[in-house]
Amino acid sequence: xxxxxxxxxxxxxxxLVLSVVSNGREPxxxxxxxxxxxxxxxxxxxxxxxxxxxxxxxxxxxxxxVRERDLPVVIHTLAGEFDIYREESxxxxxxxxxxxxxxxxxxxxxxxxxxxxxxxxQTRFCVLTVAPDTLPAIATMLIxxxxxxxSPPWDTGTDSQDLDSITFFSFSLIEGYISIVMDAETQKRxxxxxxxxxxxxxxxxxxxxxxxxxxxxECGIVAQIAEPLAAADISAYYISTFNFDHALVPEEGIAEVxxxxxxxxESSR
Length: 269
Known about the structure:
This protein is an alpha+beta fold.
C-alpha cells in the first residue's frame, strides 16, 4: 500500500519466514540462545547450499527469512533434520521433499564465505519487550525515538573500524508480540515499569558486520558470526537489516567475541 517513491528502496526478492521451534532435543547443557542455538542445524547447512538468509531475533524467538525462489533448496536441505510445516488458513500442513521436488536442482558446493569486517561500538544495548495493552502508554515516546531523535550519521564514514557509538533502535511486532532493542541511554527516557526484560537485566554489546551495505545475494554472512559463537557457547541476538547485519552479545563476553572473530578472519587470509 506504500506509494512509489524515489526515497524508498525495495529488494527485488520476495521473502518467506521460517520459524524454528525446539522439540526438546536440544542438549540440556547448552546455554547458548538466539542465533547460536540454530547455527549448526539451520544456518550453516543453508550457507553450504548457497541460500542467502536474513536473520531476525526477537525477545520471544528467532526467525529466518529466505527468498521464495530458494524454498525448494531450503526444504531439501533441512528435511533430514527437521519436520517442516507450512501454514495454510491458520493450519500447519506437513511439507515433504516430494512436495517441492519438481524443478529442484542440486546446489553446487559452496565456496568459503567471505569474512566481512566487523565493528564493535562502545554503546550498551537493552533487549526488551512490552505488554501489548501498555503499548499506547509509550506510543508517543516510540514515535519520537523512531523518527525524530536521531539525525542520520552522514558524517560518519562507513569504513570506520573503531566506532565509539552507533545509532540503533529496533522495534518488531510479530503476531502480537513486541520486541525492542535500544541503547541503555534511550531506555532511561521510557517508564521503567512498562519495559520488560530478563530477570538479570543484562546489557548487550553489538558487533556490526560489513564495511559497506551487504546486499542480499551473498550467502554465509550470518554463518560467519553464528558458527564461532556457537562453538564457544556464547549467546547472540542477531538482526539483519537492509544494509548491515548486527549481532548483540552479553556485555561481559564482548572481548572474547571480538577475539574469536579476529582469529577467524586472520586464519582465512
